[in-house]
């Protein structure tokens, strides 16, 4: 009863002087306007803020609208965003109907004397109501009993992000409003004007993102205690990739191109080529560590930028390995040429030391081998293993020997200088092909 009188007293203070009412008039108004529900006569004897409108009857319809003032931060490491919003709720309470066609804005402190919905923000981590200079709340009462209740809130809401395409990703975040205690039998939530119920989000200017689109949904949350009404504002954020192109992609590509400079330096310049290879590898490693430090808590994701840095590191490391292979092959070839380049007098002395008897013995031995193995052709590289007189295990050994000769021949570099010649062409072409596949996949798939 006190709340009922206090509400009408507050209302009468705002009415014109000719419409102000007395306690007696309030009492008569209370007696004439109060409608009792069967079985709840003692509960509906006046206004009670602990009971919702239409208590025991039809559910209260809550119409909502939002003004998004800002989205101050979007954290990939914590997977959340912080937004400042103005939440407006409208509902009709027949217990607050008064005569006239005017509306009155009441002191926000009177909200403690009224019934208000128990709306909360789903998946909110931290929230607070602005209170400078006073609590940022608004109460407006209309003659038909409609109440407008507005709040200014800053909230940090969880947003599950898929960072597999970072930094060419598009994230979908939600702001969900739900009733905490009243189920759908007591309260129904609706957007006031559909998508037009949300304002301000299309004007936001974010540091790393661009708002692609947004839309509103009406849903229900099925829980163990019942089915609760829920309103959803869903918006898509596309990351601006230009910053990452200038900071990461361009430097890593230039490092790969720098590693190709060693192909134009001769194999004899060991310090120069080694210095270029090691320097580019270390620079690429530093760039990879720096790119991952900003997302230290999301290392479980294999991101698109990690794939590109891995590709660049592989090409740089491959250029260093290419020089090691070419230099090793060149040194082996030079070592093989040393015995052939000995002075003529040394060869003459060795020829003089050869005994004629040894020459004859060797000739007879080789002649006997040709007679006994007429179907076997022995060469430095391959052996004909088609002789039917050979045993099975000898044929297997012969085939394996030929295979080994072929495999070794494939990996034997006859001219080490051609390694650099082919690398000048193959490394850039293959790198361009990988880039085409990379950008096509992450931008269009």
Automatic annotation (TrEMBL):
Enumerate the catalysed reactions.
chloride(in) = chloride(out)
Ranges for domain Neurotransmitter-gated ion-channel transmembrane: 248-359
In alphabetical order, the GO MF annotations are:
GABA-A receptor activity; GABA-gated chloride ion channel activity
Q: Which family does it belong to?
A: Belongs to the ligand-gated ion channel (TC 1.A.9) family. Gamma-aminobutyric acid receptor (TC 1.A.9.5) subfamily. GABRP sub-subfamily.
List the transmembrane segments: 241-263, 275-295, 307-325, 425-444
Question: What protein am I looking at?
Answer: Gamma-aminobutyric acid receptor subunit pi
* Function of the protein: Pi subunit of the heteropentameric ligand-gated chloride channel gated by gamma-aminobutyric acid (GABA). GABA-gated chloride channels, also named GABA(A) receptors (GABAAR), consist of five subunits arranged around a central pore and contain GABA active binding site(s) located at the alpha and beta subunit interfaces. When activated by GABA, GABAARs selectively allow the flow of chloride anions across the cell membrane down their electrochemical gradient. Pi-containing GABAARs are mostly located in peripheral tissues.
Q: Where in the numbering of this chain does the Neurotransmitter-gated ion-channel ligand-binding domain appear?
A: 41-240
The record's subunit annotation is: Heteropentamer, formed by a combination of alpha (GABRA1-6), beta (GABRB1-3), gamma (GABRG1-3), delta (GABRD), epsilon (GABRE), rho (GABRR1-3), pi (GABRP) and theta (GABRQ) chains, each subunit exhibiting distinct physiological and pharmacological properties.
Name the GO cellular-component terms: apical plasma membrane; chloride channel complex; synaptic membrane
Q: Where in the cell is it found?
A: Apical cell membrane; Synaptic cell membrane
Encoding gene, per UniProt annotation? Gabrp_0
Q: What is the species of this protein?
A: Serilophus lunatus
Topology relative to the membrane: Multi-pass membrane protein
Entry-linked InterPro entries: GABAA/Glycine_rcpt, GABAAp_rcpt, GABAAR_pi_TM, Neur_chan_lig-bd, Neur_chan_lig-bd_sf, Neur_channel, Neuro-gated_channel_TM_sf, Neuro_actylchol_rec
Pfam families per record: Neur_chan_LBD (PF02931), Neur_chan_memb (PF02932)
List the signal peptide residues.
Answer: 1-24
The UniProt keyword set, sorted, is: Cell membrane, Chloride, Chloride channel, Disulfide bond, Glycoprotein, Ion channel, Ion transport, Membrane, Signal, Synapse, Transmembrane, Transmembrane helix, Transport
